[in-house]
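An instance as discussed:

___
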Amino acid sequence: MDIDVRGPRFGAAVTTAVLAAVLITGSGGLLAWQALCFAAGALLGVPRSPYGWLFRTAVRPRLGPPAELEPSAAPQFAQGVGLAFALLGLIGYFAGPAWLGIAATACALAAAFLNAVFRYCLGCEMYLLLRRVTPRRP
């Protein structure tokens, strides 16, 4: 399925704000919300995640038609990478050590920021690299 490239970028901007708030407040509950959003994006697809729904219902109707579409596989994989960092952060915030929660959240924040501001998706690049190095089945 192809998706509007502006959707994941919008989601990354919201994610950036949420993860920055987690680092400022130390809120494990807010990080749990973000982990649920990552899980929905990874398991159901980016358009079916909470931020994808928000983009589709509140933002996209106010924009013109997309100039570009992209396959959803790479952004969906990126959501899984974000989920891994969020889960690691939750372990740090709830079980310790606290630095693990902060470091994992900061890594996820850096990746979301790169996507939101520069449209550079680290998880998507990881997906493409894995596709190149993984042998294809006949």
About this structure: The chain has a mean pLDDT of 96. DSSP finds six helices and two strands in the chain. The CA atoms of residues 13 and 116 lie 5 Å apart. The longest helix spans residues 73-95.
